[in-house]
Specification:
This protein is α+β, with helices and mostly antiparallel strands. The chain is 29% helix and 22% strand. Strands 1-2-3-5-4 form a 5-stranded mixed β-sheet, with helices on one face.
Length: 101
C-alpha cells in the first residue's frame, strides 16, 4: 500500500484499519496499486471525520467506471453498516460512523 506524498495517517483511529486491509485486497484483485490519498491531513468541511482520524480517501483513478462501482459496493458489504462508503469522481471516501448506524 502506498501513502500519497503529503498524506498523513498520523492519528488515524484503529477503527480504520479494516478499511486499509480490505482496500489493499480489492486493489490486488483489480491489479491496481492501493493508494491512500488523504487521511488526517488536508482541508475539509467543518466537522469532517478526517480531522478526528475516522476517515480515509482512496485513489480510484486507475480503475474503470465499472470497477469503481463494484469496488464501492464490495467495500460497503465488507465493512458493514458502521461505515459510510462514498464514491466521488476523483476518489473513494470511507468514514466510520461514530456512535452507531
Amino acid at each position: 500500500m502506498e501513502i500519497k506524498e503529503g498524506a498523513s495517517l498520523q492519528g488515524l483511529n484503529v477503527t480504520m484499519r479494516p478499511v486499509l486491509i480490505e482496500w489493499e485486497k480489492l486493489c490486488k484483485k483489480y491489479n491496481v496499486e492501493a493508494v491512500v490519498t488523504c487521511g488526517t491531513d488536508g482541508a475539509h468541511s467543518a466537522g469532517s471525520m478526517h480531522y478526528y482520524g475516522y476517515a480515509l480517501d482512496l485513489r480510484t483513478r486507475d480503475m474503470t467506471e465499472g470497477q469503481k462501482q463494484t469496488a464501492r459496493q464490495n467495500m460497503a458489504v465488507k465493512l458493514g453498516l458502521a461505515y459510510d462508503v462514498v464514491l466521488h469522481r476523483s476518489h473513494m471516501h470511507i468514514e466510520y460512523k461514530i456512535g452507531g448506524f
